[in-house]
Each structure stands twice: as structure tokens, then as C-alpha cells.
Amino acid sequence: MMELKNDRYLRALQCQPVDRTPLWMMRQAGRYLPEYRQLRAEAGDFMTMCKNPDLACEATLQPLRRFDLDAAIIFSDILTIPDAMGLGLYFEQGEGPKFKKVITNINDIKQLPIPDPNKDLAYVMNALSLTRQELKGKVPLIGFSGSPWTLATYMIEGGSSKTFTKIKKMLYSDPAALHLLLDKLAESVALYLNAQIEAGAQSIMIFDSWGGVLSHSSYLEFSLHYMHKILSLLNRGTKHEQYTQNYIPVTLFTKGGGLWIDKIMATGCDAVGVDWTVDLSTLTKGKVAIQGNLDPTILYGDKQTIEENVAAVLQEFGQHNGHIFNLGHGINQDTPIESVETLVNAVHKFSKKIIME
Ligand code: CP3
């Protein structure tokens, strides 16, 4: 296997020293890039891009041609699993994701199949192996999945939601049904992520975009428990005292999960993703890496505002090992390209300065 030319991201995930803080951006491939909009117009729609390995590979590489980023994330979506379970994912213009079939009761859940990732999701594995090859060791490739709780919200609500009333109704009126769904999803996600590792993913991220809408005890029971289960099933390899490129680090990101960071760290994950509500100076450093946490709307500000806020995030984390710079959530589609350039240059410049001090 080809040696990595830039392994800052993997080193930081293992809490090892780096020459500067590694950086990537959630949703780094997407509509804020004119070349992405063109590729999607040619393809016709988003899922066609995801299901075609050449197009998915091209979309993955686009942001890396423009910006000096330290990781690539495979172009795909978290909703590929419910789609492979037969729910029929589609995107309505301007309305976000939708499902043809919605889960309403325990009978629906009992009938759901566990997808075979190398058959039902082979397009994701093909995109990963092609992209890993095309990267030629430039930077590591991230594979990902949604958390069971976050996937369940889309499957039960039928799409995006602001109130989560349907899934919360099930949580409080038929918790056994919801647990059965989450358990099936955890098994499906573990199989899916292990297949991604086999196909060439060098690090894994689990997006729990909606964990933050749960109460304290419900978060532990209905979201964190199942991410913990997935971790116990993943083939990460063995982590040694010394850095190795053969270990597959796993990042757990709960949007709105700032109050539970110690509990998330205790799962045995390698890194915790945090949003912009978290003060990085309060976190335990050096054992579990931290990814974050610039508010993506700061990229609407001018150059000086962006630089000041980037420097503030780096200062807050301080001179410790184990920081991966990122936004606190995905980049917005109307973000100016120049703002991203400013961000990347600022992370390079200020993090070198902090490390040298
Ligand atoms: O980060 C990357 O560059 C990799 C690609 C990626 C996408 N979706 C591409 C995408 C990743 C990692 C995701 C994850 C994802 N998908 C999440 C978790 C992260 C988060 O933001 O919390 C969620 C909740 C989804 C579900 C989803 N997919 C939604 C809500 C939408 C609609 C968003 C919108 O603004 O319309 C999508 C579609 C989607 N996934 C797009 C992209 C680039 C936009 C599709 C398009 O119109 O071109």
C-alpha cells in the first residue's frame, strides 16, 4: 500500500505531534464550489453522482484541487443505508431528502432487511477504492456513516424535521420498537463501515447530526449506546504507543452534544467532533483527539473577522496534541470561496505559530 505524503490528520487523530494543525471541512465537496454545481448539472441529480464511482471520485477530489486540505471525505450521503433497506430515497428540489416509504410501527421495523454492503452498497465501496487509488497518497481518505439515531429520525419523520415529533412519540410510547430499529441500524452501520475500511477508508466518521435534540438520559440510551455498539464491532486494527498508518481512527460527532463530551470520549472513540457552542479550553486533551469547531457562518465575515476567529479557536485548544481543525457543522452552500481560502491560510499560519512558541 502506498505511503501517505501528508499524514498530519492521522497523526493528530492518534494524539501525536504535528508541524501544524490538520484541517478539513465537513461538506467540503458541495454547492459552494462552481465546479461541483457544473458536475451535478451534467450528472442530473445528486444520487446519480453518489451512485457513479467516477463522478463521486471527481466530486471528492474537487475541494482538494482548490484548497490545501489535509483529508478527503468520500462523496456520498448518510442516507444510503435507509435507501439500501428499501425506503426509496429521493431529493425534492429545495426540500432536502425524502423517503417513498416511511417507518411507522414495529411491523415495518421487523420487515427491514440488514443490507449487504458489498452488494446493496457496492457503489460506495467502488467509489472508495477508486478515490483511494486516484489520491495517490496525497492525503488520507475518510469513510462515514450516520449514527443509528440520526438515520432513524429520517426514516420515521420521512425526511428532515424541525420538531422530531414522530420519532419522539415512538420513543415515549413504544421504546421497544425504536430500540429494535436502532439495533438493526447499528448492525447495518457496523457492516457498512467495515466494508468501507476494506475498500480503502483510512479513518471513519460517524455523524450524529440530531443527537442534540434528545434529553440527557435519552441521548445516552437511544444515541450514544448504539454508537458505542458500532465501535465495539469495527475492525480498527491495533493502536500502539507509536504512530501507525495502519490503525483506522474513528471520530464521533454529535451536533449539539457539548454537554456529553466526557461520555462520548469514554466510548473508546479516537476523536470527538464538537460544534461551535463548545469552549475548547475546557476539554480534556491528549487522550482523545478533538475535531472542530469554527461556526461556519463566520465565513460570511470579512478577512479580518475570519482570521481572528480562526486564531481564537486555535488559542482555545492551546499547545496540546490531538486537534483537527474543522467547522462546527457543514459548510453552507452560499459561502464565498475567498473566505475558505482565508480560513485555510489562517489555520496554516496561526497553528504553526502556536506550535513553535
Ligand atoms: O462532507 C462531504 O463533502 C462529503 C459528502 C457528504 C454529503 N452529505 C453530501 C451531500 C456528507 C458527509 C454528508 C452527510 C450528511 N447527509 C449528513 C450529516 C452531516 C450533517 O450535515 O449533519 C446529513 C444529515 C445528510 C442528509 C442530507 N443529505 C441532507 C439534509 C441533504 C440536503 C442538504 C441541503 O442543503 O439540501 C443532503 C444532500 C447532500 N448531501 C448534498 C451534498 C453535497 C446536497 C446535494 C445537492 O443538492 O447537490
Give a structural overview:
By secondary structure, the chain is of the alpha/beta class. It has a domain at 29-66 and 71-235: TIM Barrel. It has helices spanning 8-13, 34-43, 46-51, 53-66, 80-87, 106-111, 117-120, 122-135, 148-157, 165-173, 175-199, 216-233, 261-265, 303-317, 337-356; strands at residues 72-73, 89-92, 96-99, 141-146, 203-208, 250-254, 271-273, 289-294, 323-327. Strand 2 and strand 3 form a beta hairpin. Helix 9 (148-157) packs across helix 11. Bound molecules: coproporphyrinogen III (CP3). Coproporphyrinogen III binds at residues 26-31, 40, 46, 73, 75-79, 96-97, 144, 160, 207, 209, 255, 330.
For this structure, the CATH topology of the domain at 29-66 and 71-235 is: TIM Barrel
Integer-rounded radius of gyration = 19 Å
The ordered string of helix (H) and strand (E) elements is HHHHEHEEHHHEHHHEHEHEEHEH
Mean pLDDT: 97
Structural class of the helix and strand makeup? Answer: alpha/beta
Set down the secondary structure blueprint.
Elements lengths: L7 H6 L20 H10 L2 H6 L1 H14 L5 E2 L6 H8 L1 E4 L3 E4 L6 H6 L5 H4 L1 H14 L5 E6 L1 H10 L7 H9 L1 H25 L3 E6 L7 H18 L16 E5 L6 H5 L5 E3 L15 E6 L8 H15 L5 E5 L9 H20 L1
Parallel strand pairs: 1-4, 4-5, 5-6, 6-7, 7-8, 8-9
Antiparallel strand pairs: 2-3
Helix pairs in contact: 4-8, 8-11, 9-11, 10-11, 11-12, 14-15
The chain binds coproporphyrinogen III.
The site of coproporphyrinogen III has 22 residues, from β3.
